[in-house]
Design brief:
- The structure is a single chain.
- By secondary structure, the chain is α/β, with parallel strands linked by helices.
- The protein has a single domain, classed as NAD(P)-binding Rossmann-like Domain (Rossmann fold), CATH 3.40.50.720.
- It has helices at about 40-45, 65-75, 85-100, 120-130, 155-180, 205-225, 255-260, 275-280, and strands at about 55-60, 80-85, 105-110, 135-140, 185-190, 230-240, 290-295.
- It has a 7-stranded parallel beta sheet with strand order 3-2-1-4-5-6-7, with helices on both faces.
- Strand 4, helix 5 and strand 5 form a beta-alpha-beta unit.
- The radius of gyration is 20 Å and the shape is globular.
Length: about 300
């Protein structure tokens, strides 16, 4: 039976439902140290720690999503749910994470989820929240792309891009927020946008993908404003050209040469995304919301 798709039982607050902040205490010559009882090394570790956190990663069974899901575990996430439409990839991802465990006590589960299916999303998020007794982190990596000339773009293909990249992100984020609000908890959401949401990323023609990722930028900002009163932060990251199966292979050799000519730092590695993701999910990023972090090697400088 699908989870209730109605509004959460907790009080729904309107946009920017916060009081005018109090004046800060008088400043000190040297700012106070947070957690003075800890050593500098322990404070540095705690700043980016995700110890004991519980997370969902959509599209986490492959590519960029898998690498960032792995980073969450490395920084202390104890309970992780991987959502992916590909069951085979999900099973291989579980094997991969199990091979890295080496005494760690994390627990991981996989759910085959189509992020465009509202009932499936609501049910999966609710079941994971019940199993984990709460949820605090959501990474949205489920996404698709394709290159087609706008004058020839089939309408069904155009709609499919938006169904996965925009509507899918919305459905999962909404289900996550409902669970957090119902439990009177707190959470952080990181969407995966793209530098293509800022620029016309030539020469490949992918108007649908670019517009969908621009939509993800504004979806993050809109949700950040709406949910700030519920202690839910919402941000996005915008990768540039990354070294994945989409940019590899003989068929992409010509494009890679063009990308390298335009990218001051070349082509990125999926691992290059993990620092920003951990920042946005950890105590170090607790005052960041409604922000997009470009991770494009300087591609959009010019």
């Amino acid at each position: 039976m699908a989870a209730d798709t109605g509004p959460p039982k907790g009080e729904i607050k309107f946009m920017t439902p916060f009081k005018i902040a109090d004046d800060p205490p008088p400043s000190q010559p040297i700012p106070d140290v947070v957690h003075p009882e800890k050593s500098p090394a322990d404070r540095a570790t705690a700043r980016f720690s995700l110890a004991g956190k519980k997370a969902i990663v959509t599209g986490g069974a492959q590519g960029l999503g898998l690498v960032c899901a792995r980073a969450l575990l490395e920084h202390g996430v104890s309970l992780l749910a991987i959502f992916d439409v590909d069951k085979g990839c999900g099973e291989r991802a579980l094997e991969h994470f199990e091979s890295l465990k080496k005494g760690s006590d994390w627990k991981i589960l996989f759910k085959q989820v189509d992020v465009t299916n509202e009932d499936s999303v609501n049910s999966a998020v609710h079941e994971v929240t019940e199993t984990f007794d709460g949820i605090e982190i959501l990474l949205c990596f489920a996404g698709i792309t394709e290159s087609k000339l706008a004058v020839e773009y089939p309408t069904d293909s155009w709609r499919r891009i938006f169904d996965v990249n925009v509507h899918g992100s919305f459905l999962v984020a909404r289900a996550f927020a409902r669970e957090v609000i119902t439990r009177d908890g707190s959470g952080t959401i990181v969407f995966t946008a793209s530098m293509s949401g800022y620029i016309v990323n030539q020469p490949q023609p992918h108007s649908a993908y670019a517009v969908s990722k621009a939509g993800v930028h504004h979806l993050a900002r809109s949700m950040a404003a709406e949910w700030v009163g519920h202690n839910i932060r919402v941000n996005s990251i915008s990768p540039g050209i990354m070294n994945t199966r989409l940019s590899g292979g003989p068929s992409q050799a010509g494009l890679r040469r063009l990308w390298l000519e335009k990218s001051p730092m070349g082509i990125g590695d999926p691992e290059d995304l993990t620092g920003a993701v951990v920042l946005l999910c950890s105590e170090a990023g607790k005052f960041i919301t409604g922000t997009d972090v470009k991770i494009d090697g300087g591609y959009t400088i010019f």
